[in-house]
Amino acid sequence: MSVIVDDRDSSIQYIPSGWRTHDSSGHELGRPVEFKSTTSQPGDTGDQAQFTFNGDVYGTFGPSADDGSEDGTSMAFSVDGGDVVTFTVPPRTTSATHHQLFYSSPVLSQGLHTLLIESAQTGNDIFFDYLLYDAAQASTAGKTLFVDDNESGVEYSPGWQLNTSESCFMHTAHFSESPGSWVSITFEGASGHNSLSSFNL
Q1: What residues have CB less than 8 Å from 17, skipping those under 6 apart?
Q2: Which Gene3D superfamilies match (predicted)?
Q3: For 169, which DSSP code?
Q4: Extended strands (E) in the chain
Q5: Residue 5: which of 103, 184, 131 has the closest Cα?
Q6: Per residue in 60-114, pLDDT tens?
């Protein structure tokens, strides 16, 4: 089961606290297409963000890249001081790519792990939106769980079609124009402590 964590979540520690959450005009960073309509951006090269999580596998890191106007803008990622993986925005990118996968870790041992994100080269075309981790062996109480429309536990009635737009979570979304179409999700939880919301299906 994947836990989704927004860039503004208090469990993410920004070092220093100079990561930008507003643009030069004072408007909050983020667009409706992004998770909770928010993003954060490092202010300088070397700015870091740390996140400690309890899980056996670190899933995916899914921020968004904006219009690439500066060559070489990049972020570096590592878990528990291990190998560093760098994501660099392709040069002369002419359009935004939301929900862009920047980093996915190898399989990790069960227990606490720390993800380190560092601005390797600062620019105006890379943003941090949200992250995902697999909490299959850890408590998910009080956390927001993410179920993708393509997961095996999601069942559709006949006639649904697939949208692969860059604006969709994981770049996929199902849609149907047929009256009476349905989708079913099976989940388990304690009585009185569950809620299920759907968006971008």
Answers
A1: none
A2: Galactose-binding domain-like (2.60.120.260)
A3: G
A4: 2-6, 12-15, 48-54, 64-65, 74-79, 85-88, 112-121, 126-127, 130-134, 145-146, 154-156, 161-163, 173-175, 183-185
A5: 131
A6: 565 555 555 556 788 999 999 999 999 988 776 667 788 888 898 888 888 899 9
Nearest to 131 by CA among 4, 1, 2: 4
Which pair of tokens denotes residue 118?
A: 């560092």
What are the start-end ranges of the H helices in 83-126?
A: none
CB-based contacts of 191, cutoff 8 Å, min separation 6: none
35: phi then psi, degrees, rounded to nearest 5: -60, 125
Distance CA 115, CA 195 (A): 28
Radius of gyration over every alpha carbon of the chain, rounded to an integer in angstroms: 18
The letter for the amino acid at 6 is: D
The pLDDT value recorded for residue 122 is 72
> Which pair of tokens denotes residue 64?
């968004």
Are the beta carbons of 131 and 62 closer than 8 angstroms?
yes
Q: Which amino acid is at 132?
A: L
**Contact between 148 and 90 (Cβ < 8 Å):** no
Would strands 48-54 and 74-79 be described as parallel, antiparallel, or unpaired?
unpaired
Res 180: pLDDT? 93
Kindly report the pTM of this predicted structure. Answer: 0.85
CB 108 within 8 A of CB 64: no
Token couple for 2? 């994947």
Which of 45, 60, 49 is closest to 10 using CA atoms?
49
